[in-house]
Amino acid sequence: MFRAALTALAVAMLMPFAAQADDRNDGSLSPDFEGQVAYFGNYTGKTSVTADQRRRDQGPCPYQDQRCYQQIVGGGVKVVLSFDGEHVTGFYYSVGGFEGPNGLREGTLIGRRTSVGCELYEADGTMWQATTCGSKGFQGQIVSVRGIPKQSEVSFSTVGMFMRDTGWISKLGEEEARRDRRINWLSQKIDGVGAAESRFRAAVELDSYSRHFRGIDMGRVSEPVQSGKRKKNREWYLDSSYTRQDGSTGNIRGVMFNDRLRCLSWDDEACGPIHPPADFPKPRLDDDGGWLSRSPAPIVVGSEPPRPQPRPRGSGERY
After folding, report:
1. Any idea which architecture 34-50+67-163 has in CATH?
2. CA distance 231 to 258
3. Contact assessment for residue 218 and residue 240, using Cβ atoms and an 8 Å cutoff
4. Residue 46 Rama label (left phi>0; alpha psi -120 to 50; beta)
5. Would the N or C end of the chain have less CB density within 10 A of its end CB?
């Protein structure tokens, strides 16, 4: 019964991290948000370019700074932004509409989040000043710096189509590193000096990582009680009880020999050695459907069947 529920439980244990993908009602992102958001919408406005030096005398250029070819532009645009706290990078891709020399076409953006949105820049200094820069939308104005060949007065309005929170992956990586350090310390503890009772508790915690990747909460394990007399070259026992997550009580017995642990028994299981720890589940990124790719439109892909999770020993519950 316990083993059958293991895969579902392992996935459920990771869900609180996945739920951190900011789903605030107002669409704002937390200050430390790490992840990507894909937007789709439109742009509209006017642009002008500087006349070619050789063609200035061939026709009038009625605009300031020898600017010609002012045109109304507009069309669809896809924007993908990557957030790392206040730092933002990304790209845009014109999907349809005016894609000539005056249109948006495609480009790269880099900048920061502000108190009211985002300020992002292209390589030539053109600024995307967004008053909305969250999970639900990316809206604002495209303003060119004076002196560059192409001048833009364009507004854009997009809605959030897909969001991927990668901050929880970093948190899981940190948790796995802490777990590995703890396991190494426990391995040294049970082979080192010290009271038999402390080595027994270290052995219980170490073996619990073979039963669930997060191990046992030692606050739920009672101090060991000795059974039998300690005599040289004779077995004796240490017993502890523990409280399961559902409130029920289990028992752990360690068979000791000359103050060293010979084997460990959980509940009604046979007494055995300390087992290797279970694999820490690797996070899987959800399918973005092509939204995060540098392409003009989403790519629809079929869903893959779920991969089996590691199957550690024991009940599959965290004790």
Report:
1. Beta Barrel (2.40)
2. 7
3. no
4. beta
5. N
